[in-house]
Amino acid sequence: MIALLQRVQRASVTVHDLEIASIGKGLLILLGVAKGDTQTDLEKLLDKISTLRVFPDEQGKLNHDLLQAGGSVLCVSQFTLLADCRKGRRPGFSQAEAPELAKPMWELFCEGMERRGIPVGRGEFGADMQVSLINDGPLTIHLDSRA
């Protein structure tokens, strides 16, 4: 499972010209589910992301996590994080999990964040989405549950 985190001042997702979710301060999480990902991969990322200290304290040091900062999450499923570009000019996506297996994992991820007390906005799984954001920092972090 791969997660690309972007600390944002605000972010939103639009589908068919309709805004379906938005957050203020927090993390935009692009989440890719790989073939063979398990509950262990899911829990590893949930634990890491929910406690990751990427928000500044009163002295400007990165000492606060999402809850301490009063932040939210906007979670967007993105299988293209699993792109294989080693050969040719067209990315291959054979490492991405099939949609019927990836969607429940993505939903469990969102629910896991909510169980930790973090407000979650969601994109629409499998939809053509437009994501708008204002990066804060910018601060962008790549996490891989298998690394």
Question: How would you characterize the overall build of this protein?
Answer:
By secondary structure, the chain is of the alpha/beta class. It has one domain: D-tyrosyl-trna(Tyr) Deacylase, Chain: A (3-Layer(bba) Sandwich). The chain has three helices and eight strands. The chain has helices at 39-51, 66-69, 99-115, and strands at 2-15, 18-23, 26-32, 55-56, 62-64, 72-77, 120-122, 130-144. The strands form two sheets. Strands 1, 2, 3, 6, 7 and 8 form a six-stranded mixed β-sheet that branches. A two-stranded antiparallel sheet has the order 4-5. Helix 1 runs parallel beside helix 3 (99-115). The longest helix has 17 residues, at 99-115. The radius of gyration is 15 Å and the shape is globular. The mean pLDDT is 97.
- How many domains? The number is 1
Round the Cα radius of gyration to an integer and report it: 15 Å
Helical content stands at: 10-25%
**CATH hierarchy: architecture:** 3-Layer(bba) Sandwich
CATH class category: Alpha Beta
The parts where pLDDT drops under 50 for at least 5 residues are: none
CATH homologous superfamily label: D-tyrosyl-tRNA(Tyr) deacylase
Class derived from helix and strand content: alpha/beta
* Average pLDDT taken over every residue: 97
Instruction: State the order of secondary-structure elements, H for helix, E for strand.
Output: EEEHEEHEHEE
Basic shape: globular
